[in-house]
Amino acid sequence: MSKQFANAELHEKENFALVALNPKLYSQATVFSAAYVLLDQAFVVVDGTPDQIVVSLRPKKGRNLKQLVEQFNSQLISHSVSAAESKRTENIRAELVKRALLTQTGNGADAKSGK
Amino acid sequence: MSKNLCFNRFFVHKAGSKTLLINELGRWLPLSKQEWSAVQKKKPNPGLLKKLESSGMVFSKKGKEQLVRDYRAHYKHLFHPVSLHIVNPTNRCNHRCAYCYSNSQALASNKEGIDMDAKTAKKVIDFIWQTPSNHFVIEFQGGEPLANFPAIEAMVAYASKKKPRKQVHWRLVSNLSLMDRTIAAFLKKNNVVDICTSLDGPKQLHDKNRPLNKSSSYERTVYWANALQKEFGFKQVGALCTVTKHSLPFAEQIVDEYLRQGMHDITAISLRKIGRAKQNWPKIGYSPKQFFLFWKQMVEYCISLNRRGQRISEQTAALMLRKISSPESIFHTCYSKPCGAALMQCSYQPDGSIFTCDEGKSEPLFKIGSINQTYKEVFSSPNALNMVALSSSLGLACNNCKWTGFCKFCPVMAFAEQGSLIPLLSGLFECRLKKLQFPYLFEKLFSKDAKILVNWSKKAPIA
């Protein structure tokens, strides 16, 4: 017997949840990144079809099923935002890393460097 | 309205009757109600337009050069190689501080693997000498660095003979309890005179936070802080105040203790949730709001003392105000984006491994190499460069926060608190704290206390 909770089907007796995700909202990379963060707290299976991603979450010992679903949804948003910001700022981040590399390898360090 | 009017990205914050426009480099412009209304309608008068251009809120031919200068100043620290080399000669310590993020081992522990041997000590200096820089700081930390004084002696002596000659500023961060006259004389003779210790407050509080087996850690620290100055001629001994749950009711008493010891700068440090602090969090920890209220009380007390002619400043406030005063980088590891980890600072462990920074040593993820590699190999390693990219916070929701130009992001603390380098920012201690501290400081900048605070920021030490 299952119960609906947000975007998840809770199977409380069997102690797992199935979270249904729209692949147009969340990329595969985002789903995997969000799931990865929870690997110490849950057994995770990512599956589905081209029209729907289904993530199965089974909490490890001592973890609460509902809280796990909430945490997973929070991680999805966090990773989605991060993915969008990363895409938007990839050029400037590359420039910053390039600059750091040039400085540390002795090419173009400021003549008055070091305090 | 100018045909060239094109707004840059800026954030809005209300501070009293003023509306602040803040751009992502940390340059800000206070507007009156009328001026804000004009900006919203995109109809600034010529005087307002000039202010918008010169503060980087509007793109224009006239304002372009200032904007470019601001970008260069903001990221200035990227043009300087590592300038702070933190060396841990040992991870042993005679204190058992509840918040130790080094997770130090007992003094009586087997030294193997925990103490730096003579060969490694020399190799550390050889490695440091490869830095492109001609001036840098070598800072001894631990554990308690004086527990392996021979390694310090060896490094200082070896460095004094190294060619080419480089300008080394030596610093010692120590609880001072293992200090003696021989060590003090050596430090003075070899110009290791920048000494920093911990003083958490009056005796009872300090001893509770920093237990020393059957002794008072307070008495030893205070004795040597004074003796180094009065007997050995050290100019100053600095101190940091780590705040635990036990400290929270005593903000004013802690300031009074610092003044009693002749110290006019106090830095209230919140706990880093790594090492023993993480394990002991239920006994010593607090919420960001609780720390903020303590810190605010301390700042207000320092301001009230300043009004009575007493010189004292709270250094976290001073540093944050310095950041607020200009987009220019202040060369402080923890107050920069990218942060100084693996860029301005690195940390050498007793076994010769090199980490991104002092806090980073707590987690293998933040190892960037070892002294058996070349300087170029270590600082161009994927871990080092990833740290630069991550700590820029440009790939995070930080980038959409109005405080982004002044704030910081610590990947080490994010990982320690949440086990992820892409954290839920709203859950991070430091993020929640800064969202309380910045509005408070801006409110003070528009109050009668502004002059006192601006003075603090001008004297804030930079790395």
By secondary-structure content and strand pairing, the structural class of chain B works out as alpha/beta
CATH topology of the largest domain in chain B: TIM Barrel
Strand proportion of chain B? 5-15%
Rg of chain A (CA only): 20 Å
- The CATH class of the largest domain in chain B turns out to be Alpha Beta
Distance between the termini of chain A: 67 Å
Radius of gyration of chain B: 23 Å
CATH architecture descriptor name of chain A: 2-Layer Sandwich
Unreliable stretches of chain A (pLDDT < 50, length at least 5) are: 109-115
Walk me through this protein's architecture.
The complex is a heterodimer of chains A (115) and B (463). In chain A, helix 1 crosses helix 2. Chain A has a five-stranded antiparallel β-sheet with strand order 1-2-3-5-4, covered by helices on one side. Chain A is α+β, with helices and mostly antiparallel strands. In chain A, strand 4 and strand 5 form a beta hairpin. Chain A has a single domain, classed as Gyrase A, domain 2, CATH 3.30.1360. Chain A is 43% helix and 25% strand. The mean pLDDT of chain B is 93. In chain B, the strands form five sheets. Chain B has a nine-stranded mixed β-sheet. Chain B has a three-stranded antiparallel β-sheet with strand order 2-3-4. Helix content of chain B is 39%, strand content 15%. In chain B, strand 10, helix 6 and strand 11 form a beta-alpha-beta unit. The radius of gyration of chain B is 23 Å and the shape is globular. Chain B has 463 residues and is an alpha/beta fold. In chain B, helix 4 packs across helix 5, helix 12 runs parallel beside helix 17 and helix 13 packs across helix 18. Chain B has two domains: 69 residues, no CATH class; 282 residues, Alpha-Beta Barrel (TIM Barrel). The longest helix of chain B has 20 residues. Chain B contains 18 helices and 18 strands.
